[in-house]
Amino acid sequence: TGLCKFGEACRNLHVHDGESPRADPLWEEKHNKHQARLATRNVLCAICDDDVVASGKRFGLLENCDHPFCLECIREWRDQKDTQDRENLRLCPLCR
Questions:
Q1: Which residues belong to zinc fingers classed as C3H1-type (predicted)?
Q2: Angle at Cα 81 formed by Cα 59 and Cα 67, nearest 5°?
Q3: Does 88 lie in the same domain as 56?
Q4: Are 66 and 88 in contact (CB under 8 A)?
Q5: How do 69-70 and 59-60 pair as beta strands?
Q6: 45, 68 in Cβ contact below 8 A?
Q7: Does 47 lie in the same domain as 5?
Q8: Residue 26 forms beta bridges with which residues?
Q9: Pairwise pLDDT comparison (61 vs 86), residue with the higher score
């Protein structure tokens, strides 16, 4: 990031003048973290439709499912013991 006006929000991974990115022993790790940060931008919870990262919420992940959820939303979904059978509550609300 360095002098980039976009800071951590920048889509690019910057290097200093005259430097080869691969010369930095931590380049691959930085690159992977940068790609992961980009991948989670504008990810909307499939239940409440909030931007999970921008709202400061944590992700709630389910096995065998790629749908994104806020941790709070998926916990509320699973707490519906009175209205849903137990097997349904283990599944993704969208995939089931």
A1: 1-17
A2: 30
A3: yes
A4: no
A5: antiparallel
A6: yes
A7: no
A8: none
A9: 61
